[in-house]
């Protein structure tokens, strides 16, 4: 269950500098006197100023298309626009040092896909259910060893997505999990030990191997790569109990991968409505690794903790600020950093799930489906991709819309909005 934090986020003021005194007189002197300055220098300055203003206007103008251009913050479909306070992290956004990433290719209104298991058969069944091909499949490596991480099952055969015509989004842990059966209470120490090794660059070589593996897969070098996703929960071994250590570990591994495969699109994914495991730190945005190694800022979000039975409830949870940020707040953070955003996992949550039994799940909720569609449509110019988490496992979210259909009203809403 997500833990709510109370720590407020800090902001830094940015101040400008005054130009050096006497600069005009010095420029006149260097140009050879007032007449030469007015006759030769001023016209050149004017032309340069016009060029700069023209380029500035071009850069801030919203552009449509599939290149992710036009990061103008606009209001979500159902909420007021996230404020600067909602978007800002503890550090000011730096200018991106990587070329702006492109969203996944699509023929629809926005790039969409599915997270439905380990076979192309399951993914294709979901595509048939909704009447629209999958642009993206979200996949997960095994986590039991470095060998299963660096040389995963993905792409081993047509059934394992080798011939999938869309884009892969692959989820990689920062390091392997402990042995099966390890008590959850031991995860923080496991995380701390491996984070320390990662910070010392001991795992860079493995991520260079991942980059080489991506290059070896036909037309997969530009896959989305989710490294250490949902780090702000306490359920994964790479939980960010120390955000600074997590941030450096992520940076080291992403930089190592990109040194071999510079075309990979690195996706940094938070879990919605969840503080960092250590409530002393709270705000998950404190763990942002930096614009130079992140292409996409993602969020996994489900209709739980809190659920959205009404439009107003959706608006409220979408705009929840840090340290428990909602989808709309993450979109604003991505816009501030001039990045695409993604929603690699999302879905309704069954009443027969753990959250449902706790009274914190929306169940068969077409309102949630409709409001997610409206948000994707509103922000389609900066949406890298979204993927429905079609799950029927008894101890999971029970979100399945097809094969089997556990949530029929939500399924009908999804079909009507995605076909």
UniProtKB/TrEMBL annotation:
Q: Which residues form a coiled coil?
A: none
User: Which key words are in the record?
Assistant: Glycosidase, Hydrolase, Membrane, Transmembrane, Transmembrane helix
| Similarity-based family | Belongs to the glycosyl hydrolase 26 family.
Q: What is this protein called?
A: GH26 domain-containing protein
Alphabetized Pfam families for the sequence: Glyco_hydro_26
Which stretches does UniProt call biased (Low complexity)? 81-109
Provide the species name.
Answer: Pseudofrankia inefficax (strain DSM 45817 / CECT 9037 / DDB 130130 / EuI1c)
**Where, by residue number, is the active site?**
230 (proton donor), 345 (nucleophile)
The reply on keyword ATP-binding is no
Q: Which residues cross the membrane?
A: 41-60
Query: Start and end of every GH26 domain?
Result: 97-419
Supply one GO BP term: substituted mannan metabolic process
PANTHER family according to UniProt: GH26 DOMAIN-CONTAINING PROTEIN-RELATED (PTHR40079:SF4), MANNAN ENDO-1,4-BETA-MANNOSIDASE E-RELATED (PTHR40079)
Bias (Basic and acidic residues) ranges: 1-14
Q: Show the segment(s) annotated as Disordered.
A: 1-24, 81-116
- Molecular function as annotated in GO: mannan endo-1,4-beta-mannosidase activity
């Amino acid at each position: 269950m997500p833990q709510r934090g109370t720590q407020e986020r800090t902001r830094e003021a940015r101040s400008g500098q005054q130009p050096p005194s006497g600069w005009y007189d010095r420029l006149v002197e260097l140009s050879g006197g007032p007449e030469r300055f007015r006759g030769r220098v001023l016209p050149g300055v004017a032309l340069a100023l016009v060029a700069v203003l023209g380029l500035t206007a071009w850069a801030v103008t919203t552009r449509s298309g599939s290149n992710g251009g036009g990061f103008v913050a606009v209001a979500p479909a159902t909420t007021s626009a996230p404020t600067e306070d909602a978007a800002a992290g503890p550090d000011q956004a730096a200018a991106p040092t990587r070329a702006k990433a492109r969203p996944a290719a699509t023929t629809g209104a926005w790039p969409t896909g599915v997270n439905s298991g380990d076979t192309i058969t399951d993914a294709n069944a979901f595509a048939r259910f909704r009447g629209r091909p999958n642009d993206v499949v979200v996949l997960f490596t095994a986590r039991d060893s470095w060998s299963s991480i660096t040389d995963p099952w993905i792409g081993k055969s047509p059934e394992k997505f080798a011939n999938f015509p869309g884009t892969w989004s692959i989820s990689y842990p920062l390091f392997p999990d402990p042995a099966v059966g390890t008590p959850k209470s031991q995860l923080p120490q496991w995380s701390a030990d491996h984070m320390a090794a990662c910070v010392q660059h001991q795992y860079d070589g493995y991520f260079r191997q991942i980059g080489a593996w991506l290059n070896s897969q036909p037309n997969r070098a530009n896959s989305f790569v989710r490294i250490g996703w949902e780090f702000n929960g306490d359920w994964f071994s790479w939980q960010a109990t120390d955000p600074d250590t997590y941030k450096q570990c992520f940076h080291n591994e992403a930089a190592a991968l990109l040194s071999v495969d510079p075309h990979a699109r690195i996706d940094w994914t938070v879990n919605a409505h969840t503080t960092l495991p250590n409530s002393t730190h709270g705000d998950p945005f404190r763990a942002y690794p930096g614009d130079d190694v992140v292409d996409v800022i993602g969020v996994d979000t489900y209709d739980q903790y809190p659920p959205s039975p009404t439009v107003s409830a959706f608006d409220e949870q979408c705009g929840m600020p840090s340290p428990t940020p909602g989808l709309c707040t993450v979109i604003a953070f991505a816009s501030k950093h001039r990045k695409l955003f993604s929603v690699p996992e999302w879905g309704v949550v069954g009443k027969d799930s753990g959250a449902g039994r706790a009274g914190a799940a929306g169940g068969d909720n077409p309102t949630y489906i409709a409001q997610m569609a409206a948000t994707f449509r509103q922000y389609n110019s900066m949406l890298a991709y979204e993927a429905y988490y079609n799950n029927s496992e008894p101890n999971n979210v029970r979100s399945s819309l097809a094969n089997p259909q556990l949530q029929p009203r939500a399924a009908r809403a999804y079909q009507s909005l995605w076909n």
